[in-house]
Amino acid sequence: MEGIPVAERDAVRPRTSLTGRIVTLCACHPWITLLLALVLAAGAALYASRNFAMTTDTAELISPELGWRRGELDFDAAFPQQQDLIVAVVDGATPELAEAGAARLAEHLQGQPGLFRSVRRPDGGEFFARNGLMLLPLEEVQSTLDQLIAAQPFLGPLAADPSLRGVMGALDTVLLGVERGQASLADIERPLTGLADALTAVAEGRPAFFSWQNLIAGEPAGTRQTRQTRRFILAQPVLDYSALQPGAAASTSIRLAAQELGLGPAHGVTVRLTGPVPMADEEFASLADHVEIMTAAMLLALVAMLWLAVRSARLVLAILATALVGLVVTAGLGLLVAGRFNLISVAFIPLFLGLGVDFGIQVCVRFRAERLAHPAPREALRAAGGAVGGSLALAAVATAVGFLAFLPTSYLGVSELGAIAGLGMIVAFLLSITLLPALVMLLRPRGESVEVGWPALAPLDNWLRRRHRAVLAGWAVAGLAALAVLPMLRFDFNPLHLRSETVESMATLHDLMQDPDRTPNTIDVLAPSLPQADALAARLSELPEVSQVVTLSSFIPSRQPEKLAAIGDAADLLSLTLDPVTVRPPPSDAEVARSMAETAAALRGVVPPQGGGEAAAAARRLAEALERLATGPAGRRAAAEAALIPPLRTLLGQIREMLQAAPVTRESLPPELAADWIAPDGRARIQVFPRGDSNDNATLRRFSAAVRAVAPQATGTPISIQGAADSIVTAFLQAGLLSGIAIAALLAVVLRRARDVLLTVAPVLLSGLLTLASCVLLGLPLNFANIIALPLLFGIGVAFNIYFVMAWRKGETGEGKAGLLPSSLTRAILFSALTTATAFGSLWLSHHPGTASMGQLLALSLAWVLLTTLLLQPALLARPPEGGRAGG
């Protein structure tokens, strides 16, 4: 080490000699070393198997001590029934099918207390059936009642004979009016068209759905009006936290119940599940999707890269075995420290493989190089350990410090990753100088006969050193260009954007977001009492960013005397119509066939053979369908009965309930409804809906800011998204500053010169800038998951540059030497980077968007780290180190 100041020589030599002694000791006692390592791994595996836990809840990635998180947790405590829900979205081809299907499914689920703590319908039940009309504006109430009264001649016969025979009789009565000139076919075009469509489908053997509600309300038959044909069931399941998908049993039960009840597309009903529980379960499932293929691809590529690096199957086996033991030990330590893994901390697996294998490659490549001078494996290991041990130790500690810098931040996801990965780096280093040498001795790889480095790179290395000023200027320009585009970097911390849109829960959620009245991106505010909540709601409703505001008082109808008077008048007029004195018994099949034939003849009698407009065309189609059904098999007539009569009974029941409306007061509201809006301590909930696209981050930011300006205590998804974004940015700024200071201090203590510290960190900082600039150019935003590429970039970049700077300081490269690029060190760094990229790049294959974006950004950052290390560092190290050059 001639030429290096004494103080620095003393600082470097003890580390090297100590590492060499440890390597030599383990190489002399390989079986004992292996046995101790296996005992340690077995203990860690046992602990991990007994204590394994993982959460997919993105809310748990942020510290609960933050202000907005405390508000979120306070709301959860006030309304626990709103947490851990399965939302069953029941869509029907008609309003009647949706209502009947939701009612039957909810009743079925309520009979399973072992699976569900509660099952309720927020938009259904006796209260809404009886008083739902009262919640509409007075004009709509009167319009609805007028439509019912106008339909009285049609409803009477149907209520007295709710069968296909009754439908035919009602239609015959109307046709008699047309024949006498009291009405025209155009006046009954809508019922003719609706019946013709439904019965033609039945006659042709196709599914048929008919809505009496749409018919009476004046809506075109068959039109899908989402608000009328959609119902909701909120189920709070009993979660099984011992399972990887705690709500899977409850979700499966709902799907099976829907099948048993015939709630499927063939019967005009679909049941889809969304909400926190299915989303978390399907999140884990999407993470595990194709995990076997990803793992196989990663392992194959990993083995290929290791083979190219060390050119020895036995060394590859030694490195992989060491990495596997390290991974098990790190998993056990991670669970011991963090208690469980999360969506981000679980990334320690590819992270450990990438960085852990790097240490093994460094040792084995140097071992191969030393065998030219030391043919005996033990001597070559001692020399390799002494040569690279100091660099590995410094790189491991620097990388661990970089990860541990996230511990004090509020971003718990990366904080826990930092703790686990920081410990993992120490584990990887210790195993690389203990277990790895022992395995090498036991496996006895063949000796070397040729130089391990790459002499062909000598011209490039010489050019970079000779032209170092031009090279540095080129990289400086690239750095300035990266700085210029950095303000355009996008941050997307909406956790929903990290989830797969193909799974049912997310696809359903996106569907709900299209309806501004049913979007889940709402804000909740807690007020001390209901009167204060109503006063605050009035102020919030005036905001242009707000579409509507709901409190418990929203369920107490306004202008009740006028509405009740109108409903009472309609009830008086329709009472005998809806509840006739006698109801005819169900008809026989022969009676149904005869009534169909008679109605078909009546239609033919009032319709010209050709022309007559759309009403006449619909009448002819209906007559033809009735004739086919009248002469066809009984099964087709039964299908027609199933298409028309159940929705008729549903409608008649809804009308009867609607006309029994009574005054609504705070005290008369159902207890389960009141509990959703008034907490046990008397605080009242206010729900605020956004105006505009509720899935747009900019819209949600404006919405959140406007609401919080009026109600600072507000909480909810939009505020959580914005708060999480601010917390993550702050966390990374804090951790970046802290890790930068800590690593710089560590390097200053070891390297002893400010210039050498700058030479080590400058390429890393530049690679970070270029990575972020590439994100701008590629349209890749930073998010909850892929942002972990930044601490990884810093850690591995510092490690690579430490290897070069330490070799340069010891005089192993430079004038009269092989140079940086032709050396075995470059081979180790290159294949280490490629191996790490392989481990992380496999994440890119994931079907989970968050994981895929993580792999994408990790691969991108590693590419820039490698380029700056190999093409910038030789230019930076073109001048000899201060104080001369060491002799080796």
State the strand order across the main sheet: 2-3-1-4
Q: Mean of residue pLDDT?
A: 85
**Coarse shape:** elongated
> Treating each run of at least 4 consecutive H or I residues as one helix, how many helices?
34
- What multimeric state do the chains show? single chain
Count the strands? Answer: 8
The portion of residues forming beta strands comes to: 5-15%
Low-confidence stretches: 1-16, 220-225, 884-888
Share in helix:
55-70%
Radius of gyration: 37 Å
Distance between the termini: 6 Å
The profile of the biggest β sheet is: 4 strands, antiparallel
Secondary-structure-based class equals mainly alpha
Distinctive features:
4-stranded antiparallel beta sheet, 888 residues, disordered N terminus, mainly alpha, 34 helices, 5% strand, 8 strands
Explain this structure to me?
By secondary structure, the chain is mainly alpha-helical. It has 34 helices and 8 strands. Strands 2-3-1-4 form a 4-stranded antiparallel beta sheet. Helix 4 packs across helix 26. The chain is elongated and about 115 Å long.
Question: In a few lines, what is going on in this structure?
Answer:
With 888 residues, the protein is mostly helical. 64% of the residues lie in helices and 5% in strands.
Topology diagram in text:
Layout: H1 6-28, H2 30-51, H3 67-78, E1 86-92, H4 95-110, E2 116-120, H5 126-131, H6 138-150, H7 152-160, H8 164-179, H9 189-203, H10 212-217, E3 230-237, H11 248-260, E4 269-274, H12 276-288, H13 291-310, H14 313-338, H15 348-370, H16 377-404, H17 412-432, H18 435-443, H19 458-466, H20 468-485, H21 504-513, E5 523-527, H22 530-541, E6 546-550, H23 560-578, H24 589-606, H25 613-631, H26 634-658, H27 671-675, E7 684-690, H28 697-710, E8 715-716, H29 717-751, H30 754-778, H31 789-809, H32 824-841, H33 849-871, H34 873-876
Antiparallel strand pairs: 1-3, 1-4, 2-3, 5-7, 5-8, 6-7
Helix pairs in contact: 1-16, 1-18, 2-14, 2-18, 4-26, 6-23, 7-8, 7-23, 8-24, 9-25, 9-26, 13-14, 13-32, 14-15, 14-17, 14-18, 15-16, 15-17, 15-32, 16-17, 16-29, 16-31, 20-30, 23-26, 24-25, 29-30, 30-31, 30-33, 31-33, 32-33
